Amino acid sequence: MTDYSIMRELSFSIRDEFTRKPIAEKIIKLLDSDIDVSPMIIDGKWGTGKTEFCFKLKNLIEENNPNDYKVGYVNAFQADHANEPLLTLIAEVASFYDEKDDKRKDFIKNAVPYLRLISGIGLKAGLGFAFGRYAADIPDALADGMEEIKDGSKSLIDQSLESMIKDQVEAEKNLSTLKEALKKIASTTPVILLIDELDRCRPDFAVMMLETIKHVFDVKNVQIILITNAEQLKATIKHSYGSETDSHSYLYKFFKYQINLPTTIKDVEGRSIENNVTYFKVTVQASRVIPQDFKDNEFIYDISKFVKIAHLSLRKVEQVVRCIETLIIFEDNSKSKNPEVEQLLIVFLSFAYIANKNLFEQIRDRNIQVTDILKFSSSSEEIYLPNDQSILENFPTKFFILLILHGLSKDDFIHTTTYDGNMDYHISRLVEHILKDFDFIQESNSTYHIVNSSYIYKYIDHTINNLLLFDIVK
Q1: Are residues 302 and 327 in the same domain?
Q2: Which of the listed residues 194, 228, 260 is the one where a domain comes to its end?
């Protein structure tokens, strides 16, 4: 579960493992420019760190704020039970000012007629959520919904049919009054509203929020940024309006800009690295459970680079690390034969457990399908020694894992080929080299695989049993 109290304090100076500060700076340049960029979408898949980026962006805007922006954050998912998106947004704007500030009083007073019109009797339920933080504005209305707000404003809950008809007739007037109030309050202090988690909301509420943004908040000096999963939002629109709806066209009639959060970063050599690979190392390093010698084993980080985890969200990567931490807690270090090798197996099996349950079960049953292990390890074809020795030289961790799993497969996928010279000696040197890299003593004279009697396979069974002991990913 996201800890918003921690999130609110985050800044790019604290951590920026995905190098996203330049993106935030470009967004701020757009907001500062004369280009009409609002409403704007910041698009990212689930689990890509959108909420964290949102708070970092908010804090960066406020850190250097020559335009005196008032920056608000709205968690749409927390608000959708109240079913009043406009009330939620109005309450956030009101929160910018002290309860005794005349701007606040006037703004709420001008918002009330339109709020009553669009909300009707349902407004009473929404008040507790939206204005709960600002009880000084409407202290008694939360109790019975029939008291006045400040200087004799009309009742927030008016069940009179006559009054509702009158409000309907004056709808456009009330909307204009509200927009003028927004325009007035933003004329001296421009407003930026960051709306997060809309992709997790009920479809009807999400659509209501979009319509509210379009019809009410299209006001000068009020800029709206939606931080969301655009594809999920399109699915929400289809759910509300039918599968035949052109959800793409519908969605983008609301927005002028879309910023896409990258899922990769460049390393020092210019190669693309998936964010979840970077996040894995960061999360392991930050763990208070994983011992330092485990963290210092550079081979464990290679595993996240070659196993198929591109589809994993950052939350799933956290679950992988939680598996690793749990296995470490369960370990009896006095029985360890080779910590470095055992650490590799802990990491690999944790990734398999979270990312590929089918392969994990195959390893458990000692019945690995060659195509599955090669696919999961990003290997396009079988390995032929000694001709394919480059895999050993360039990807020693990958080769070692494949060498171990080779013994659990019914079919050979590490083969020997004809070689001019002493073939057995050459292969033996390859294997000796890889085993030496991992400080592992081979337990037989086999030249191209680890024998089935090796303690490694007993250790794999032990680790799998520990992973299956609890449903530790929930």
Answers
A1: yes
A2: 260
Q: Which domain holds residue 169?
A: 4-260
Mean pLDDT of the chain: 82
Domains of the chain: total: 2
Residues 93 and 126 in one domain: yes
User: Peptide bond before 39: cis, by omega within 30 degrees of 0?
Assistant: yes
The residue among 239, 260, 281 that closes a domain is 260
Task: Pick the closest to residue 406 from 432, 433, 379, 429 (CA basis).
Answer: 379
**In terms of domains, do 319 and 303 share one?**
yes
Crossing angle for the helix pair 314-330 and 275-286, nearest 10 degrees?
40
Give the pair of three-digit tokens for residue 298: 């550079």
Question: 438 with 399, same domain?
Answer: yes
Domain assignment present for 280: yes
For residue 237, CA distances in Å to 225, 227, 240, 336 come to 19, 16, 5, 55
The pTM of the full predicted model, rounded to 2 decimals, is 0.73
Higher per-residue pLDDT: 119 or 176: 176
* Opening angle at CA 24, ends 18 and 26, nearest 5: 120
Average pLDDT rounded to a whole number, residues 96-107: 90
In a domain, 474, yes or no: no
**What value does the mean pLDDT take over residues 349-356?**
94
245 with 280, same domain: the answer is no
Residue 349 contacts residue 363 (beta carbons within 8 Å): yes
Q: Which residue in 33, 153, 132, 24 sits closest to 79, CA to CA? A: 132
| Range scoring the smallest mean pLDDT among 7-11, 377-381, 445-449 | 445-449
Residue 334 confidence (pLDDT):
85
Answer whether residue 125 shows pLDDT above 70.
Answer: no
Query: Both 255 and 308 in a single domain?
Result: no
d(CA 58, CA 56): 5
Q: In Å, what is the CA distance from 369 to each residue of 31, 382, 385, 399, 412? A: 53, 12, 20, 17, 10
